[in-house]
Amino acid sequence: MTTRREFVAAGIAFVGCSLFPQAHAQVRRREVVVAGKRVRTIDVHAHAIIPEAQALMKQKAAPDYASTMAERLQRMDEQGIDMQALSINPTWYGLERDLVAKVIELQNEKLAELCASQPDRFVAFASVALQYPDLAAQQLEHAVKKLNLRGAGIGGSVEGEELSDPTCHPFWAKAEELGVLIFMHPQASPDLQNRLRGNGGLSNTIWNPLETTLALSHLIYEGTLDRFPGLKLCAAHGGGYLASYADRSDHICLTFPERCAAVKLEKKPTEYLRQLYFDSLVFTSEALRHLTAQVGASQIVMGSDDPFGWTKTAVDHILGAPELTDEQRRAMLGETAAKLLRLEKI
After folding, report:
1. Is 234 within 8 Å of 184 (Cβ atoms)?
2. CB neighbours (10 Å) of residue 8?
3. Structural domain boundaries of the chain?
């Protein structure tokens, strides 16, 4: 078993994994076929860390990250996941500019090295310092054009500030210009620690999807999605609660129009859901059916939340959904993600 010391020495312990392909257990990769057609399955919600960057930030990784490259590949093979798009959850939004610039440079270079070493298994989203949107825009462009990263992973807020704030416009403009996918994952909120304490892990169970709901709602109501209509944005955890109660978003403007008067929207709030993307991490066939009905099958991509173990059946979740057509299953399993991530066909 590769030790933690060896992870760090390797220079890129993505999810605690060492870069030792020869250590990969010989598990036959499950090949996914839909209606006689082989599908390259792509998981857009998979986490990573860079130990050297963690050290720069004086942070410690969660225990879930202590797995090897062999273990990660074995999980992927067993579940039928051909490729993962890796992202690092932002824990650097509170850092000052010089330090965060070093952290981001290190993380993106290490992610690029990893993807180059396993090009058929991994691509990655760049890290960006969104507390400095001008810097984040520069980092995104460099990562995409020079490092072959496929977009950016961001939080659902930035130290309590909303992504819809005009200060973020330079970043959104650059993302739209480059035409790359932005993967949004929720962040913890210190302001709610008191109410979320206790049994049930509510800071994750309740808050994570709620922050995504808030972030998307602000992007809609504040006109950000009108300002950047070409933006490709994917929300984790099925977009939180928004799709589950989306019609209320329309009715607030119908029942109390004065509450929607500050920004004139170009269409109904629910219509913006069909220009966003969502991962499939909603756990039941009924939840996936409802999400599909609300946003459209073309807007859903597969997500596993590896290595946190929320699901080990991301592929089967889609294959077993009774309401989906074969074409929709293929799109969710990988075809849509391949287009968004600009991957060549197998």
Report:
1. yes
2. 17
3. 52-63+87-340
Q: Which helix (H) or strand (E) holds 81?
A: none
Tens digits of residue pLDDT in 82-126 = 999 999 999 999 999 999 999 999 999 999 999 999 999 999 999
Task: For tokens 């966003």, name the residue.
Answer: 276
Per-residue CA distances from 57 to 16, 90, 138, 147 (Å): 17, 11, 21, 23
Contact status, residue 153 vs residue 204, Cβ threshold 8 Å: no
Tell the residue number behind the tokens 């990988």, with chain if given.
334
Query: Rounded to two decimals, what is the model's pTM?
Result: 0.92
Residues pairing with 14 in the sheet: 17
Give the CA distances from residue 172 to residues 64, 74, 163, 232, 277, in Å, rounded to whole numbers and listed in that order: 32, 36, 9, 10, 16
Which tokens sit at 328? 């929709």
CATH number of 52-63+87-340, picked from 3.20.20.140, 2.60.120.260, 3.30.300.30, 3.40.50.2300? 3.20.20.140
